[in-house]
Amino acid sequence: MKKKSAPQADAAPAPKPRKKTPRAETAESMASRQREIAVSEFFLKNRHLLGFDSPRRALLTAVKEAVDNSLDACEEAGIVPEIAVDVQQIAESRFRVTVTDNGPGIVKAQIPKIFAKLLYGSKFHRLRMSRGQQGIGISAAGMYGQLTTGAATRILSKVKNAKAAHSLAVQIDTKSNKPVILSDEEVDWRPAFQAVEETGASVGEAAVYAHGTSVAIEMEAQYQRGKQSVDEFVKQCAIVNPHLTLHYRLALLPKPEPRVQKPEAEKTESRPPQMEEHRVSYVRALKDMPVIPREIMPHPHGVELGLLMQMLKDTEARTLRSALASDFSRVSDQTALQICERAGLNPKANPTRVAHQEAESLYRAIQETKLMRPPTDCLSPIGEAQIVAGLQKEIKADFYTAVTREPEVYRGNPFQIEVGLAYARPEETKAAEDMGQEEPIRLLRFANRVPLLYQPGACAITKAVIGVNWKAYGLNQPKGALPLGPLVLMVHMASVWVPFTSESKDAVASYEEILAEMTLALQECGRRLSVFLNKRRRDMEAARKRSYIELYIPHLALGLKDILGFSDTEKARVERELKNMLEKTHVEVG
Amino acid sequence: MKKKSAPQADAAPAPKPRKKTPRAETAESMASRQREIAVSEFFLKNRHLLGFDSPRRALLTAVKEAVDNSLDACEEAGIVPEIAVDVQQIAESRFRVTVTDNGPGIVKAQIPKIFAKLLYGSKFHRLRMSRGQQGIGISAAGMYGQLTTGAATRILSKVKNAKAAHSLAVQIDTKSNKPVILSDEEVDWRPAFQAVEETGASVGEAAVYAHGTSVAIEMEAQYQRGKQSVDEFVKQCAIVNPHLTLHYRLALLPKPEPRVQKPEAEKTESRPPQMEEHRVSYVRALKDMPVIPREIMPHPHGVELGLLMQMLKDTEARTLRSALASDFSRVSDQTALQICERAGLNPKANPTRVAHQEAESLYRAIQETKLMRPPTDCLSPIGEAQIVAGLQKEIKADFYTAVTREPEVYRGNPFQIEVGLAYARPEETKAAEDMGQEEPIRLLRFANRVPLLYQPGACAITKAVIGVNWKAYGLNQPKGALPLGPLVLMVHMASVWVPFTSESKDAVASYEEILAEMTLALQECGRRLSVFLNKRRRDMEAARKRSYIELYIPHLALGLKDILGFSDTEKARVERELKNMLEKTHVEVG
Asked: Residue A429 and residue A200: Cα distance in Å, rounded?
């Protein structure tokens, strides 16, 4: 133990200076080493930021990114999604992830960039809710595969109404963040699908559609059951996407047998190992697609001074008034005029000139002008009925409720909070409660319909739940911790831009406006829960007291018999009638 | 309250479908919207990732990035650093941060890129410990200033031995991640400095040097005292950089007076408001610079298969053997030969060919080969004596100790963990302990000599401290929480690449190897603390028992007097001798 650590003395002497210290730099020598860093180099070194810091998490992240893309593509194209997720172990620490969808397919020229270039996509620049937003995810998964196995990302895709499909193998040149195409073939759709299946992957029913995309990535990974597993991810996906049919196959190599010396003859190397296979299909509950959200313009109250200046410089409008009315949401021509007047600016002024000289007064005038909240059709919340239905389908409980709040805004981005709640097994709990052994509630976190499984501690959702005083609603809650009890709580944030705490998109950043909305939704659900719990408590209390009184009815009747000289028949009648009365009245006994 | 939330019904009906839903997309229409995302656009939208999510944190982050750069530059140039940090409030929610150093200065051509281009720098591509590593920080601070105020980053810099200094104002074109130069002048050094001072900023003593850099950024910000303030940052900087002299000035506008109706005459608008000014100088404790760390090659055991293939493709060596020996650390010519033999490869093979065909067997052979741990001179730990000195200077305590572990490796990156500890005020504590009101210990986190003030919950350091069983070392510790007691604990991670959990560099990612080293260092410090605490406890116990016995000595003497018929003088003598005996023996009474 002491080998590595310093001697017992409280402070060892300073380390000896080494003899050959590197030469001191000058401004010139330092300048010669300055260079640009490709974003792919950056994330290769920082791959934990993308969710690839452990082999276990890498597997989940890869599946998540591929499924997000598939769902987004299907929904944008108005196709009811059917997705096959295949996770196949091909060596002790190596897996192949194949995700196949019935989406619109991808135009060939875009395939290399979408799958092998970081920061490339169609979702970043628009204000509209979608699962993907950064243009990093799937390329990062491919880059991780390439880094750990040297293998390429393989894509098979067919666009609707196209004659042929395309099969490509791509890698990312990490020094330049550019795609490298290793192979590129025009192929027939069905045979190509069969070829994918021949690699062992399950592609579900997607082949029956005449369009879609299949992506396969080989990577160093590890599979482990539990709360942060691919199993849990696809299950939660099905809860918040009731229009999704998802086929999931997990194929694991047999576990290495304990090292027993076997006779030589039994070592039959030729037989391939029998895979341990798990299959589950989540069939859609409804065929209706969620409403396709609409793209919006930025809301003026969320635009900072510097950004306002940039927008005025870039506008295509000729006058300040029309720039305000055309480039922002919730600014009518009339409101634009008001803003100009309040700022003391000419509505016909050149926006570019305003950007340089009078932006600050314009900025202040905008802040002082009352505006409608941003339009809400850029969001597609799950809906209260759908949340309750999802919970009922998945979780056995005695009480369900859900709240979908009206949209709010943080930094100009509309967002909407939804909370669902399922409370179960009150009897068993009572005992656990008494024994101080209650478990923390189960908290399910979602952002734009994507389950968040990692980093609960860093997430605004967890923070909001901990911040609510659950004791007021009848639950126990240790200080600074999740409440206790047989409760499943789900919180969903829908937004045109979810502020994740890292590129791996596992936790929502704690913007005040977001926390406030979550708190209000949680409190509303809490109140409803408390009404239910109070009623149940009163009912149980009443039942307890009634059964207590019932116990005494025979004695009461006996007493009456003695005092009033009742016959046995009269006594029995009194007893019966007392019981009836008690049952009918249901008086508040407490 | 009900206005925003759904009706009391447990689940409201699904939202009505809107009539005008956006048109469904096709593969072709989606392709037309795909585009590249500039890394600056990405971080502008995700500025919370860079530490600019609140005005308060923004202020700290800007100071931190500028100071990191100044310290790195001074040390690389072998200049004992003297830095002035000036934080000046210029409007209610607007500050100007000016950081001035006596560093080597920056070559003019590099200034725009260093201060107005993300992912540009000299530290990313080398394996050597430094504060900055990403090439993002200072440009991000400027970008945030630009976004919130529209102002440019102003830089004044003079290179050693150059005739003139350069004064530049730069902004970042966020759509292309390229610098825009707004003004660019050749100026005289001293007058230019005076000009900076005339803006109200304190530039410390830096002007007396004939070289250095001063950077000023205006931004929306907020100042608040406390654990996450600039005050705390500069103080902790001084602790871990004993060779640094740092002048800190904070100038705040007077707080708006409570709105009392004053007589008209008193409203003297012409007089400028009196600034509330705080100044503190941390003077260096030692003139010796830390050893300049040396750049190293990657260690073979930390190189993944995909990266190995890339390195073999890129090598300038002609043979596999020489590629192994020249491009990796700790691979001698002899070891390279061994690896080739183990992999069954010809040492004279063309590395590029091996990259494509035999990389896997080479990879396996490398893993199986025992290698020396990476060289340690790429790191510059603080040192045990220096840590203890730093703690003693700053924190009054009864017991100090520090452990600097030997370097270890995670993912091929050498790193080194240091832990320091100061334990104080035992008497007062005892009472608090009895009353169950002990406070959690104070944990100071550092990475490459930079204090980490945000996101303690996400940090491996916090995780490691919580994971240690402090009860075994004599402290109370609630389950899953920091231990309690009058203890200041500092943990420093030095590494050629600190794996931060986000670009804001506030928390260290939880790699297993890092957690293990932290745990060992903490345990060693814990053991030393426990020796101290046990001794103190025994001493106190002995003292308590002795005073108890002392109480009875007069009675004992009186008894002896009665029984043995002692005179008063004899009684006094016995009393005295009993006391002497007690004092001399110091026997273990317990």
From this structure: 46
Residues A81-122 have pLDDT tens digits of 999 999 999 999 999 999 999 999 999 999 999 999 999 988
Out of B109, B220, B458, the one facing A457 most closely (by C-beta) is B458
Does the CB of B36 have a partner CB in chain A at under 8 Å?
yes
pLDDT at A5 over 60: no
3-class DSSP string for B269-318: CCCCCCCEEEEEEECCCCCCCCCCCCCECCCHHHCCHHHHHHHHHHCCCC
Q: Would an 8 Å CB–CB cutoff place B53 in contact with chain A?
A: yes
Q: Inter-chain contact A37–B528, Cβ cutoff 8 Å?
A: no
pTM summary value: 0.82
Half-sphere exposure at residue B165, Cβ-oriented, CA atoms within 13 angstroms = 24
Helix (H/G/I), strand (E/B), else coil: A220 = strand
358-377 in chain A: CB under 8 A from chain B: 359-360, 377
Facing B458 at nearest CB: one of A36, A150, A458: A458
Nearest Cβ partner for B27 among A105, A384, A503: A105
Residue B106 to residue A31, Cβ atoms within 8 A: yes
Q: Is A33 within 8 Å of chain B by CB?
A: yes
Q: What is the rounded distance in angstroms from the CA atom of residue A437 to the CA atom of residue A476?
A: 11
B92 at interface of A, judged by CB pairs closer than 8 A: no
When pLDDT is cut at 50, 70 and 90, the band that residue A275 belongs to is: confident
CB atoms within 10 A of CB B587: 11
Please indicate if any CB of chain B lies within 8 Å of the CB of A135. Answer: yes
Q: What percent of chain A has pLDDT over 70?
A: 88
Long-range contacts formed by A285-291: CB under 8 A, 24+ apart: A285/A242, A285/A243, A285/A389, A285/A393, A286/A242, A286/A243, A287/A80, A287/A243, A288/A243, A289/A75, A289/A78, A289/A80, A289/A243, A290/A75, A290/A243, A290/A380, A290/A382, A291/A377, A291/A380, A291/B15, A291/B17, A291/B18, A291/B21
Higher pLDDT, B15 or A216: A216
Binary contact (A14, B77; C-beta < 8 A): no
First to last CA, chain A: 65
Which of B448, B476, B475 minimizes the C-alpha distance to B533?
A: B475
- Six-digit token string for A260: 């027993």
A57: confidence class by pLDDT, cuts 50, 70, 90: very high
